[in-house]
Specification:
The complex is a heterodimer of chains A (272) and B (296). Chain A is an all-alpha fold. Chain A contains eleven helices and no strands. Chain A has two domains: 2-61, no CATH class; 69-271, MetI-like (MetI-like fold, Orthogonal Bundle). In chain A, α1 packs across α11 (244-271). The two termini of chain A are 42 Å apart. By secondary structure, chain B is an all-alpha fold. Chain B has one domain (71-292): MetI-like (MetI-like fold), CATH 1.10.3720. Chain B is 78% helix and 0% strand. Chain B has 14 helices and no strands. Chain B starts with a helix and ends with a helix. In chain B, 42% of the residues are buried. The chains are: A mainly alpha (272), B mainly alpha (296). Chains A and B meet through α1, α3, α4, α5 and α6 of A and α1, α2, α4, α5 and α6 of B.
Chain lengths: 272, 296
């Protein structure tokens, strides 16, 4: 315990006098991780009631999930929407970021700002707005409708990731390729894209997660055959606490952490 | 030479312009998508908010917002909850960021995983977890009673408490990251200098460290406040239907009453408030700081 008497900083305050601060920080960290960590053991409980620690272990709620047609259909919808959103948003977002970066037109900043608006506008407003228009053009509850709305939300994220990669990319390399006879398109695909590919992949993963995790817009525009996982989960949460959700949550936590870890690793690679 | 260079330069300039326009057209599809799925619908709602039931122009929806107490309550609840959440985030986030900034980098990075974990967990998963933790027979209540901290189960969820706990949990990382970044950027020599000049550790903290970390704190607090204004899911689930923030009110106006005008006018006001606060914020702190969080 001699450690407590030692100086913690250059201003000579001791660890002992700052002990309360360390305890507080530890408690706050616990508060931050507790909900994520608690769901995992709960999902393996045998009981209907959510006691902790569980008395008996079982895979009951996982079986429940995998045997339920409604949950399976919702999961399939979410994956389909996520993958399609990823494709649309990554292509459109990368094109836009590249276009704005190279065109150097006076309005570039303005256009960039317009493309970022989906981040600033409250999602509830986007949700009811999209719902209103979809009712008119009969896109409610359709996969196309969900994918278009989610892509719109994901484009700004892809753009931010890709344009920051382009900023650190030396455009002269493309000029060299073109002076050696490559067309603009060819130069992009064989010189630029391979060098920003990690950011593009990282943007694509974030686009998938944007769609996969999205609740509010999905609540309004998805439904019926095409109800998303988040929509079903939200409705289940409002009704009663069904431990099946713990099982689904655990699976979602594993999936998102894996994807985000990949995107972090890929994102880091371009920095160097 | 000049009579040859003239048309040639003209052609070159024209080619360059065409090329730049071609490049610029790459933004077309993204712009088209954002315009049709975002600007047109939101613009349409804006228009609807100024129409009365007969379809004539009138400010009736906005006037109702002023006259009907339930709308005023929703706005007041939104501001009170956002303000309280921001305050709690500052009280919890600042000490946490401080401790993290004092740790060696490697240890701090490991702790950062804990801070980032909520970011990485789906919103609904976390909401569900709080429901489980906070309910009457939930883990917090059983353990609290078992340890003798309190006697009867506390009402922790399906009310304001649950909403605040859930929102603070979601928003805390948004505060910790910019504060941590600004604290890491403080040169420790300043504190040494203060100590050298006779300041006690506490005095050095208040006079030197705190003022230097304020820009990060301001950026974090503003982003937390702005994001809180639009909350829907947490009050809906953890508030158990008792907490009505503006976003919840908008949803009920649509789901129950199909009152597009009323919902739109609320949405417009919420949006304008957000933009106004963001504008004021951008004058106070650099906007990248707000949107980019901390990348120390």
């Amino acid at each position: 315990m001699e450690w407590l008497g030692r100086a913690a900083t250059d201003t000579q305050i001791t660890h002992g006098r700052r002990l309360w601060l360390y305890v507080l920080a530890g408690l706050i960290l616990l508060f931050l991780i507790l909900p994520t960590v608690i769901v995992i053991p709960m999902s393996f409980s045998e009981s209907q009631y959510l006691e902790f620690p569980p008395q008996e272990w079982s895979l009951r709620w996982y079986r429940n999930y995998f045997n339920s047609t409604a949950w399976m259909q919702a999961t399939a919808t979410s994956f389909k929407a996520g993958i399609l959103t990823m494709i649309v948003a990554t292509i459109l977002g990368t094109m836009a970021a590249y276009g704005l970066h190279t065109a150097r037109i006076r309005f570039s900043g303005l256009i960039f700002g317009i493309l970022l608006t989906p981040i600033i506008v409250p999602v509830i407003l986007v949700g009811i707005g999209v719902f209103y228009v979809y009712v008119k053009i009969k896109l409610v509850n359709s996969m196309i409708g969900i994918v278009l709305a989610h892509s719109m939300l994901a484009i700004p994220i892809v753009m931010m990731v890709v344009s920051s990669a382009l900023k650190s990319f030396d455009m002269n390399q493309e000029l060299v390729a073109r002076s050696l006879g490559a067309s603009r398109v060819r130069a992009f695909f064989i010189v630029t894209l391979p060098q920003i590919r990690f950011s593009v992949v990282s943007g694509a993963i974030l686009a998938f997660l944007t769609s996969f995790d999205e609740v509010i817009v999905s609540l309004f525009v998805s439904g019926g055959q095409n109800s998303t996982l988040t929509r079903n989960m939200f409705n289940a949460l409002r009704d009663q606490i069904d431990p099946t959700i713990a099982a689904i949550s655990t699976l979602v936590v594993i999936l998102t952490s894996l994807l985000l870890a990949i995107s972090q690793i890929f994102g880091k690679k371009t920095d160097q | 030479m000049s009579h040859v260079a003239g048309p040639n330069a003209y052609n070159l300039r024209r080619d360059a312009l065409i090329e730049r326009l071609a490049l610029f057209s790459l933004t077309g599809p993204a712009l088209l998508l954002v315009a049709t799925v975002m600007l047109v619908p939101v613009g349409w709602l804006f228009w609807l908010s100024f129409l009365n039931d007969a379809g004539g122009l009138s400010p009736e929806h906005y006037l109702r917002m002023l006259s009907q107490p339930s709308y005023e309550r929703a706005f007041r609840a939104t501001f009170e909850i956002s303000f309280t959440t921001t305050a709690i985030c500052i009280l919890l986030g600042y000490p946490l960021a401080y401790v993290l900034s004092q740790l060696p980098r490697r240890a701090a990075n490991i702790c950062m995983i804990a801070v980032m974990l909520p970011f990485w967990t789906s919103l609904l998963v976390r909401t569900y977890a709080w429901l489980v933790l906070l309910q009457r027979q939930g883990i917090i209540n059983t353990w609290g009673i078992k340890l003798g901290l309190w006697d009867a189960p506390l009402a922790l969820v399906h009310n304001l408490n649950g909403t605040l706990i859930g929102m603070v949990h979601i928003m805390l990382p948004f505060l910790v990251l910019p504060v941590y970044a600004s604290m890491r950027a403080i040169d420790p020599d300043y504190l040494k200098a203060a100590a050298n000049l006779g300041a006690s550790p506490t005095r050095a903290f208040w006079l030197v460290f705190l003022p230097l970390s304020l820009p990060g704190l301001l950026a974090g607090a503003l982003i937390v406040f702005i994001l809180c204004l639009g909350f829907y899911v947490t009050p809906a689930v953890l508030g158990g239907g008792k907490i009505t923030m503006v976003a919840n009110r908008i949803a009920t106006d649509i789901e129950l009453f199909f009152n597009w005008g009323a919902a739109s006018s609320l949405g417009v006001v919420l949006f304008i408030l957000t933009v106004m606060i963001l504008y004021v914020a951008s004058r106070l702190v650099r906007l990248e700081r707000l949107l980019g969080g901390g990348d120390a």
